[in-house]
Amino acid sequence: MDAVLQAKRNELMARWQEIYDLTGIAALLNWDQSTYMPVAGGAVRGRQLALLERLAHERRTDPAIGRLLDELQPYAESLPRDADDAAHLRVMRKIYERSTRIPAAFAAEFAEHTANSYMAWVAARPQNDFAAVRPYLQKTLEMSQQMAEFFPGYAHIADPLIDFADEGMTVAMIRPLFEELRLALAPLVATISQRPPVDDSFLRRNYPKAQQIAFGESVIRAFGYDFSRGRQDETHHPFMTKFAHDDVRITTRVDEHDLGSALFSTMHEAGHALYELGIDPAYASTALDTGASAGVHESQSRLWENIVGRSRRFWEHYYPALQAAFPAQLADVDVDAFHRAVNRVSPSLIRTEADEVTYNLHVIIRFGLELELLEGKLSIDDLPEAWHARYQENLGVAAPDDRDGVLQDVHWFGGPIGGSFQGYTLGNIMASQFYAAAVAAHPAIEDEIGAGRFTTLHTWLRDNIYRHGAKYTAQELLLRVTGQPLTLTPYLTYLRTKYNAIYGLL
Amino acid sequence: MDAVLQAKRNELMARWQEIYDLTGIAALLNWDQSTYMPVAGGAVRGRQLALLERLAHERRTDPAIGRLLDELQPYAESLPRDADDAAHLRVMRKIYERSTRIPAAFAAEFAEHTANSYMAWVAARPQNDFAAVRPYLQKTLEMSQQMAEFFPGYAHIADPLIDFADEGMTVAMIRPLFEELRLALAPLVATISQRPPVDDSFLRRNYPKAQQIAFGESVIRAFGYDFSRGRQDETHHPFMTKFAHDDVRITTRVDEHDLGSALFSTMHEAGHALYELGIDPAYASTALDTGASAGVHESQSRLWENIVGRSRRFWEHYYPALQAAFPAQLADVDVDAFHRAVNRVSPSLIRTEADEVTYNLHVIIRFGLELELLEGKLSIDDLPEAWHARYQENLGVAAPDDRDGVLQDVHWFGGPIGGSFQGYTLGNIMASQFYAAAVAAHPAIEDEIGAGRFTTLHTWLRDNIYRHGAKYTAQELLLRVTGQPLTLTPYLTYLRTKYNAIYGLL
Predict the structure, then answer these.
(1) By the 8 A CB rule, do A464 and A286 touch?
(2) Span A231-280, pLDDT tens digits
(3) A-chain residues near B243 (CB < 8 A)
(4) Sign of CA dihedral B499, B501, B504, B506
(5) Do B246 and A40 touch (CB under 8 A)?
(6) A165 in contact with chain B, both atoms CB, cutoff 8 A
(7) What is the per-residue pLDDT for B112?
(8) Which residue, B41, B47, B93, B38, is CA-closest to B68?
(9) Domains in chain A, ordered, with CATH?
(10) Residues of A identified as active-site
(11) Nearest one of A432, A414, A413, A430 to A422, comparing CA atoms
């Protein structure tokens, strides 16, 4: 690369670093709002966040970025696809083109609308008041359809929205996959329903907060979460957030009468954090310093939470320590009973509290509703009833109201309708596919988990997935890492093996 | 005001609001850095802060601001000086003119230099390594002199630097005032030194952290600190910070073997916070939404910490509660002994730990050294020895090293040399002047303090000082509120009365 080109590349990277920093600063403001902000601080916080978003948007759509990208395009094309600079330029171009397609006035209107919609939802949900959010949802739907129209040439109107979160995925790919999964899960759920229910009542004894947090942190420290580059605080809804390459924090919530709540959310968010913390330091502060997609991100949170954290081997090692932390509460519970309890399958109303087997049915319901809404086949007015009908049909449960029905998730009230849910189930599927590849490469991983050691697994994930950041799409990553495109087989094998053992189905 | 003018005014206020928000956001980043940030987060935090400072500086010096101010100048001049809009325009113009006088390249270089200098100081102080910071300090001195040169026409080279923090104050005003104070304090210190030393050993018993914090917070809640608009966290050095009109936080540090440390720092920072929280809500998010000067700010922290919080009347009410919080530790200590202990006068090496009487001697030493450095009469090389000599001369103590000598304060390592210290003593003087006016207006204040009630005092301070924010200069405020310019008399009367009683000097 000659000096002129090098100077252009440096200018582009320096400009992008500002976008990166503005995003990290906004993440800190959001984190503070959820953790420590005094109540009256909220009034101005929204304005501060809107300012940062405007500044970032101005920079993302600055014509100077487009010019530099164009000038560097021949250089990008001279590189092999997996060269770092090729990836830098490819990802920046993707974001630049996406951002400039959406008119600034539309972006501002949508940001303001979703902020209002979110506040309306926060007020309406406890009141079970769907009517109060109906007009917001109607406008969200119309604006989501409009947003898709900024990306003409799609096969399905949801495709551009899905592409925002899970680049390259389309309705044509996801719909048959989810249908296949649904058809495989239905008999598993039905069979398990015939078995005597697992007793998990002891999970609801009194578990003091401090010991819960200490135990959870000892687990994620063993996973490899580095507290010099992160920390855990308490929030109403757990999340992972990133302020910079070396500042990736997680949050949890503690219920003193639900031992699983904080523990598994801590492992889940730590999984997200391990991903971000494992990105190549050479990508720090660039467009590659983030996960590949919503689905790949979720694959890592679910891998650590479920495949590792809810496994029999894991508890073989950790259960004595848990009993030592809660000697009175767990004296009469052996490791088998505990392992069964934290894997209890039971169709329920709330997605975030669902077990591994039924969880995807919640996601598939939402994904289907999103498509019908965007296609114009389902109206907002008919949405609450459609929700209830799908739950009855797929899970055999009926919410008594909309609070635990259509009002239960924040997603449609804080963002577009479309693209918000598929990542959860894609993540579950990928988690098993990645994990199977890890174990195939290093069969000792399973015994190590049984000994409370995670280094081989963590190192393999870092070397094969984490370090690449956003360099590869999910599909590229799957192919590179597992030798296969996205496939259901490892996931179904995992679920059947695990739940056959727990419920003695064989 | 016609519609065109109104539109210009609105545009100016909207532009200023962005500066206000960028400043509030930067304050949050600084607060996080001191409270919760994981160690590795520091690398990028400086860069994020530099970005925000650059964005704010660009906006403060935007020629559009100058144009709007010029267009609104006839309107400003048509208003009485104490009209809100006259003050808005006056204060914005002051900041605009000050900011545009300093070339952007100089401002950036100085910001980068002080960041480096601060880091060098953090490393050098524990090592007692003056040589390591000497070149930084030399550059700071040269840049401080250069900065003053951007404001030609001064009587003393320190005047422009003093004006940044204490607008309108000059060396010509401060030097004789401080000399008069020094001459009045010297015999008081000498006389007290002849008396038997006060026993304060019981303050160093073991006082558990949680009870210390709970007691301190109960006191500032009674002062009127509103925890829905603020909160208290722990940091190495206590401070007050403001993210927005309704988010004003304080920090403290707890030493389990020093009961006074957290308690009085909590009252001190709460005093700063009460000031900011008491500003007229109509000034929220404007250039007036801040204190009048460093000196006036310090007057409020010292008023609540010392005049109220170290008074005999205050402890008359609060000591039983303190004893209840620490029954074992304070069983053998009566209120008189406690009151004497927290007012013990003893010449010492460290400014921030000094008692009320000797504190100003620490400040006066620094103020004098700053002037001589700026005047070119004292070199950086000779500074450490000059420091030791002044301490010996004025306080009769000798630091064993530079760590507790010239390296003890952050000020010269995190900002210019000049203008950084006078506010502390000006604040002490003003605190007594304001308090005397409050008691003259409402003699019941003193009895109320003895009953643990602070409403009359707080309301008077809010109505007469706090609500005005930056509308008036310190001198205007003193004249309006006390009918007098800055005067030493109330302060000397306060000190003599208090310490005569404590040390039985009469």
Answers:
(1) no
(2) 999 998 899 999 999 999 999 999 999 999 999 999 999 999 999 999 99
(3) 41, 44, 48
(4) positive
(5) yes
(6) no
(7) 84
(8) B93
(9) 3-152 (1.20.58), 201-344+426-469 (1.10.1370.30)
(10) 269
(11) A430
ipTM: 0.94
The 10s digit of each residue's pLDDT in A384-430 is: 999 999 999 999 998 899 999 999 999 999 999 999 999 999 999 99
Interface A–B counts its CB contacts (< 8 A) at 103
Q: What is the mean pLDDT of residues A475-483?
A: 98
pTM to 2 decimal places: 0.95
Catalytic residue among B58, B142, B149, B269: B269
Give residues with Cβ within 8 angstroms of B382, minimum separation 6.
Answer: none
Average pLDDT over residues A329-352: 96
| pLDDT tens by residue, A191-222 | 999 999 999 999 999 999 999 999 999 999 99
Q: Residue A199 has what DSSP assignment?
A: P
Chain B contact for A243 (CB, 8 A cutoff): yes
**Hey, how many other C-beta atoms are within 10 angstroms of the C-beta on A228?**
10
The reply to whether A51 touches chain B by the CB within 8 Å rule is yes
At residue B60, the pLDDT reads 97
* pLDDT higher than threshold 90 for residue A116: no
B270 touches B252 (CB < 8 A): no
Q: Cβ contact (<8 Å) for A230 and B38?
A: yes
Q: What is the DSSP string of B143-201?
A: HHHHHHHTS-S-SSTTHHHHHHHSTT--HHHHHHHHHHHHHHHHHHHHHHHHSPPPP-G
Active site residue B269: yes
As a whole number of angstroms, the distance between CA A165 and CA B279 comes to 45
> Is the backbone of residue B301 left (phi > 0), alpha (psi -120 to 50) or beta?
alpha
pLDDT < 70 positions in chain B: 506
d(CA B259, CA B263): 7
Which residues face B232 on adjacent strands?
Answer: B250
When pLDDT is cut at 50, 70 and 90, the band that residue A46 belongs to is: confident
- Cα A249–Cα A263–Cα A438 angle in degrees, nearest 5: 75
Average pLDDT, chain A: 96
User: If DSSP codes are grouped into helix, strand and coil, which group holds residue A292?
Assistant: coil
Check CB contact under 8 Å for A37 and B247: yes
Partners of residue A227 in chain B, C-beta under 8 Å: 38
**Cα(B367)–Cα(B493) distance, rounded to whole angstroms?**
24
CA distance B43 to chain A (A): 8
Instruction: Please count the other Cβ atoms lying within 10 Å of the Cβ belonging to residue B230.
Output: 26
Give every CB contact of residue B379 below 8 A, 6+ residues apart in sequence: none
